[in-house]
Amino acid sequence: DFEANLTSQNFPESYKAQLRALHAAHPNWIFLADHLTMTFNEAVNNESTVGKSLVQDSVAKDSWKSMMQYAYDWSESKYVPYDTGGWVTAEREVVEYYMEPRNFLNENGIFMFLDQTYNPQVQTKEGLQLILKGTFMEGAFPEDTHATYADVIMEAAQKTGVSPYVLAASIIIEQGTNGTGGSISGKIPGYEGYYNFFNIRAYKSGNY
User: How far is CA 200 from CA 128, 132, 184, in A?
Assistant: First the structure.
């Protein structure tokens, strides 16, 4: 049945060996093909434009960093940052590697392809609480509109159709486990009372 399902979805033969190994280890996992009209090269070209796909200058090897026009400043002999923290444009070959699905069809990498839509049969409040455990969202919600952060996130999932697990993970990635980021303090000058948990369009300005 598993093989027939892969074939019916037109999974390429080059994908099947790795999917078989994952199925053997996790027989309950479901793999769904997502057929795109854009070619792989077109996608890589779009993601390789200057300032779009970034690597951290202080961490990445020089071979990972692009030296295209506007990505590297030859007069200063340094890479041009495009985000706070020294994030610079990634070399095209690096982008290509990370966009190739077959490089990540393993027990860890496969989660980059996780379906991010809300499925109440799979994603539960109990499961969400396991993700929130040990973070600033584990306890009570600070306002009287909801009892816990889990209640808020589950409601957000129902309203947006986005997996509550993805919402929670995104907040932890952006705000850390302690939640000390200024964007959720509600005290940024000019933005008092605003709480940007996902750091949407946020950037460093002065001491903030």
Answer: 22, 21, 11
